[in-house]
């Protein structure tokens, strides 16, 4: 689901609109043709439980589904800018540190840099990449300086921003 709705809908021939929405019927149909036998009930369960995180959401009429963060495909989730907490956290691999300290955090292949409200969550995110390093982000000061932040619509502990220049980063 993450792979298709965030990164490669074309792989199963799925249409994702400019706001990231895919038709539920089409998703189930294309997934079935791809050999993944998912019905609506299982999809609902996936969206509710999603491996501990709310990664997807249904549209109000329940006919469409989208990933709520993490995209590399160009989508406009129509999120409203919001004032972030004073400090947010980012977990990364130790091996990325020298580059991050020099260039800052950038979104790499995704549309946004992903930041966590809780340091422990940043640790979990970073450990996906190897030996972990945690950075504290001066999000309050960044916001005051005009940087725009968004909060995930389904996971309030995840914040999104386009970049974090080095001067706003502190290695913990
Ligand atoms: C690093 C998951 C070198 C960055 C997670 C990270 C998250 C740099 C990696 C969400 C750099 C990109 C996103 C620079 C950034 N030089 N490395 N200048 N700037 N990086 O996977 O934040 O579980 O694209 O530190 O939980 O790890 O899938 O981003 O290590 O919320 O729902 O480049 O994906 O969500 O890695 O993860 P990623 P991320 P799910």
Indicate the overall shape: elongated
Bound molecules: ligand HQG
Structural class: alpha+beta
Largest sheet: 3 strands, antiparallel
% residues in beta strands: 15-25%
Mean pLDDT: 96
Q: Give me the CATH architecture of the largest domain, please.
A: Alpha-Beta Barrel
Q: Mind telling me the CATH class of the largest domain?
A: Alpha Beta
Assembly level: single chain
- Total beta-strand segments: 11
Stretches where pLDDT is under 50 for at least 5 consecutive residues are none
Q: What is the domain total for the residues? A: 2
Enzyme class: transferase
InterPro entries: Ptrans_KptA/Tpt1 (IPR002745), RNA_2'-PTrans_C (IPR042081), RNA_2'-PTrans_KptA (IPR022928), RNA_2'-PTrans_N (IPR042080)
Function: Removes the 2'-phosphate from RNA via an intermediate in which the phosphate is ADP-ribosylated by NAD followed by a presumed transesterification to release the RNA and generate ADP-ribose 1''-2''-cyclic phosphate (APPR>P). May function as an ADP-ribosylase.
Organism: Fodinibius salicampi
